[in-house]
Amino acid sequence: MSALAGTMIASGASDSSPPAESAPAHKHKHRHLPTPAPTPMALPPEIQAKVPAYKPGPIPFHDGEQLVYQASWVGIPAAQARLEFHKAQKNDQNRWLGEIWIETNAFADLFYKMRDYMKESMADDTLHSSGVYLVQHEKSRLNYYDVTIDRHTQIVTMTKKNHKGTQSKEYIASDPWGPISGAMMALTQDFAPGKTYAFDVFSGSQRYVFAFVVDKREKIHLDMGDFDAWKVVPDVWYVSDGELRSEAHGTTLWISADDRHLPLRIQSQAYIGYVRADLIAIDGKGGVERAQN
User: Fold this and answer.
1) Phi and psi (nearest 5°) for 90?
2) I need a labelling partner for 170 at 20 to 30 A (CA). Which of 13, 50, 76, 109 fits?
3) Is the pTM of this model over 0.90?
């Protein structure tokens, strides 16, 4: 459900001078100069021109709301994801906090163990994000990511930490989003067949421009019941690591066709079969009833 690694990595501070006890340099060799910081990366102009700015409509979630999803592979339960939206602590009630936990079950752990966590802080009036914190614990890999979003300077800084050290990189972005804030902004928009929404999203150590095309309205069935839903087809217009450009292919989203725009299902093609995540629980019964016929 999110993305990874790219170019223009600035390594953490290192001493470029040779140690005091080192042997003199060969007369034909030059002393290494400090590595210059990389220039912040901007979007290609043709991509930037296709990404509009948005204003939020009604927020689809209430304070403390939780959504729970069951992920399966060819019908076999494999993981669970929990999303929670709540207002910040009393000292900053003008911000939303979005949190996501993803955990594979005992069966899937035998093949690919995952314990991921993401947190994002957003202004309650604009949904503008101040940054993202992400823990990726997959198999034996453990990475920590901090994404700092400064809309005033239009600079996004992404820092990765693990047992190997710290890596950072910077991007120029006029309208940057995190994965949660971008999803919330998209869900506040008006849906209609043929409409396309695009967002410049920063997740972990990767930058994406995601596009979402509203295909059509149709009925779907979940264990929770039958729903009237918008079928939405995502695409990737740009990714900072070009090798991942095809990641969204074969993916489809279904969003409830009511005023809440609840994410109901996401389905992606896998090497064998498909992976599907369905909404299985929500902490407000009324929300489900409004999304159903």
Assistant:
1) -55, -25
2) 50
3) no
